[in-house]
Amino acid sequence: MRGPLIVKRAFSEPLLLLAAFGSILLATTTLVALTMYASSIADAGVRRTMETASYQQTTATVSAPVTVETFPGFDRSVRAEFARAYTRPPAVTTSFGSDSYTMPGQERRKRPELLRFGSYDGLDRHARLVSGAWPRAGGDRVEVAMSLSAASASGFQVGQEFTTTGRLDPRPVQVRVAGIFQLDDPFGERWAGEPLLSRGTERGEFTTYGPLMVARETFVTHFATSVNATWTAEPDLRALTPAQLRPMAAAIDRVEKRLKAGGCANCVAASRLPEMLTQLDTASLVARSTMLIPVLQLLLLAAYALMLTARLLADHRRMEVALLRSRGAGTVRLAGLAGGEALLVALPCAVVAPFLGPPLLALVNQLPWIKASGVRLAPVADLGSFLVSFGVALAAVVLLVLPALAGARRTYVEEQTARGRSGGRGLIQRAGADLALLVVAALAIWQLRHYGAPVTATAAGGLGIDPLIISGPALALLTGGMLGLRLVPRISKPAEKLTSRRPTLAPALGAWQVSRRPLKYAGPTLLLTMAVAIGIVSLATAATWRASQDDQARHQAGADLRLSGPPDGPELGSLGRGTAFTTLPGVTAASPAFRGQTELSGESAVLLGVEAGKLGELFRLRPDLSAQTVEQMSRALAGSQAGRLELPGRPATLTLRARVDADLPLRLVLSDGLGVWRDLPLGVLHAGDNRIDLDLRPLAGRTGKITYPLSLRGLIAITAPGPANLTLTGLSAGGRELAAPPLSMKVTGTSPAMAAFAPPPAPGPVPVVLTADLAASIKLGVGQVGPAGIDRKVLQVKVVAVVDTMPTTTAGQPAVLADWGTLQAYELSVAELPRPATEWWLAADDPTPAVRALASRPEWDVTALDERALAATLRDDPLASGLQGALMLGFLAALVFAALGFLVNAAVAARERTAEFAILRALGVSSRQMFGLLAIEQAFVIGLSLAAGTGLALVVGVLVVPHIVLTGQATAVSPGVLLDIPWGATAAMLALVAAVLFAIVAGLARNLRRQGLGLREEQ
User: Fold this and answer.
1) Can you give the C-alpha Rg of the chain in angstroms?
2) Could you read off the pLDDT of 315-345 as tens digits, one per residue?
3) Where exactly are the structural domains of the chain?
4) Which of 156, 247, 613, 845 has the lowest CB atom count within 10 Å?
5) Topology of domain 645-756, per CATH?
């Protein structure tokens, strides 16, 4: 009997049970999809990070001195430990470097040129042969292959044979050059620890060529005389899962300890991978925990929508339940009826939801930021998704049953008496529970703002998800909505008084209806308020996240395109790099720049030198980071400039004639037309007249060009054996004799000395821009002048601006910005060598053509940081962008919940008042007035919900959103996150919601009109 009774009972209220079914199906499907999404995006984020990680980040190395006897045992041990540490055995390559050998024919020289031999497993996979063949092991002679740059510099050719001896090992080695090769990426990260291999030549106290690459067997046999061997593990981490991160990091950390215990006492292991894996593990945990925020918001909204439906269902059955009680039905039987009815609705949803989740995620894949990241989510229904689905469905059953049992003990007479009663405040408000929830929500949000993420340290020393923190936004939305309900009676009563004075009937009746039964409208108002707030917060979070990615990219790059690399090189010399960079396609402005660590009044800081006049075009500083604009900084930063003697024409040579009265080492400082400074050694001038001839063409490099005009700045004597006096007696440029300036120098021999080619302007304080912490440390504010020590030299500085954080630096990193020319003038005035141009800052409307041109010239040895590419990389990080997809899922589900809940409540309310409406029609109330009556009642709910939801979203957005936008590494964003509310999209969403809800009201009014006419005809 119970089965058919439950079915009959269920179909007696098809509208409410259909609404309950829709709510449960929407909740289970969306929550299953969100849990699938959170797991999938975390896995995708780990895989993407591993796929895009650099060579240096993922590899692990072990180095140890080896001999021909010890190498085989060490090799087996290292390979075994690498295989043990990784989930999949990595590819292991071995490389060697020999001691120095003498260049043939230079054995008797005091400072001969040197050769080095080397070996690298699989070199043929990373290089191509230009001529000859790869060396083979065995034979009478040692076969070697040389890089093209080493062969060009040393003069060796394929087929050439020679004999060399070691500086430490006198045994002669007979060598044959078997081949010449060119590395595929000579300046890539793989060769960062092999500068000789990538450049071919090292110049220092000795000039060294090489390495002459041989087969591994040859090296071990001939050159393994306690030389260094390096084993490099290159793991395949593409299939790595978040669960494997922490164990693998710990295993890699133990490699060195295990090797030492196994007998390799001098083995040294190094890897950045454990640190990276630990950080990635934290980021994955933070990403999953952050995605729980929209899940909890949706859970709360779904629970409330279901409770509204359950309460309506219970209200409709109050008299029926009272009659059953009067006929002997106990609480257990009533609970069984309600539970069976709820299970009849919920169980199909629990079964179907896991299969609806993947198609829903396929729609998420179409979101622009998910699609751009290349992440393709294709989860399948598994045990976890079914557990989530059935858990949500069972919770829905409980929510459906509870209201039905709440009034089960009332008698029929008590139910009749209670019908129609409606106070101005609900039980929760009367008990003050909304105020208590406000305190809990405030505590949760305070913790979120304090910790910066929903992850905190556990008692065991690890990391865990803090349930209070992740529930903070949801509690804030619920509490704000409940507090908003207190406005319903406070607004409805004045509205009733106002409309009662007007002659129109519909506004007066509608306002009176709301004022008389405010709790009837409180439920849908709270539901709509929370749904609207969730929608706006979701839009604001997505917009804030996108704006933050752009801010981070601009801050990290500092300019549209920032180039870094060695200030001098064989292809592009110090005065050739600027010419090449400024002529790149699309470049509109450029400035040489210096970046380096300095000590400012005892504080370690980053020193930046950029041309002040170009800051307006180059410097990407967010306006809120400083009270001064970039244009103001640009005007104020330019200080005293050094004098110069401009050389006419385009000279390729320079000749100086000088008279000294004692030996004097001297250096010449000059600059090009782009403002790049360079010092040239003039050698030691001997007592008497001296002539120094300089070839300026090497300053441009093999493929570079000098930007003219060249200017002479000064002569510097860093050290001197004793006192000396210098007088410049002649000067010619490009064979053209110039009038020698009256330049003289007196050197004491105890400190550096300088003589300028042109008198400098009056010295003054060096204008600087400081970060706020640095300004506070040296106790100088904007406009103030005071002493500051830079590189242990005290000078007067004038603070022209203070910034919260300096572009191109990390959060909290002290930094100082100065004008490039002013900085160089100061260095010259204290007889310091000029600072090299370690960077070039470029402005371009579209940096892409310039980046392509740089990529086609790897020999220039340039690293390009493109702001647009960096922003795209940040946006494409699945761990950073994962929250956006979850928010959009929650946003759409919230709007559907709002529309469904409003429809059900409005339809039920209209059905309850069918007789009332029929009487009004019989009394002569027109159809238009009937529609107006419904419109006024529901407009009150809609208007109050939209306004309260918008206000609540603003409050929650300000308090929460900036603290849940993190980097892909789960660290705080620099510069700080600014809330961005897309008012256009928000207004469109509010208009769409209002249109849908008023369309529902219009449909109900039309339906009531037909019902009213039918009832009137019957009467």
Assistant:
1) 39
2) 666 656 666 666 656 566 666 777 777 788 8
3) 59-236, 482-557+867-1018, 572-641+763-858, 645-756
4) 845
5) Lipoxygenase-1 (2.60.60)
